[in-house]
User: Fold this.
Amino acid sequence: MQNALLFRLLGVTGLYIGLKYFGGEVGLKVLYPITLLVTFLHELGHGLGTIMTGGKVLHINIESNGAGVTVSQGGWRGVILMGGYIGSAVLGNILFYIGARKEKWASSTVTLLCVMMVFTGIYWYNSMFATSFLIAFAIGLSWISKFTKLDREILMFLGLASILYIIQDFDVGPSSDLKAYAEHMIIFPEVVWRYLWLSIALVLCVINLRMIFRNTPLTLN
Assistant:
């Protein structure tokens, strides 16, 4: 079983790296919607942080250049700001873990992800581009899930893409969140929070891999 997991992990990782670093224009076009999905997970992390701390999400927007913004009222600002980077790391690891270890959960998880995209695009509407992308991606993902048996591979690829993206882009991606967070949490300067966030993302990834490849099966089925 572990050999099969390792083979699938290497396959998914190789596909992502091949597209990103050796795929040229074709690779960039293939990964473009995945990049926007990572932005969606980032903004969803802000939204979940808002809701978990008693706030209200007004709207979520995803722009064509990969940027995103979440506008909310109330809630704990510290958790909301951290929710984007750390939240997308958590969500990415969850997707990857379910794809790797939870075959029975894979189809339902893909469906839930699609529902969340459609819900976000409609209920937290901000722009036609964001809503069109989220609904189109959800439809495409649902179609692939329905007519293939690639649910686990889909989740592993999306989860891995999210994890790798936030790790490799940590010095640029969360800059606005980090600046606001450092102003809110004045204990450390921005550069310290930057590496603390990166450390949390890396630790989550290591813990996830240990859970995936450990010999004893997990109790949840």
About this structure: The CA atoms of residues 108 and 151 lie 9 Å apart.
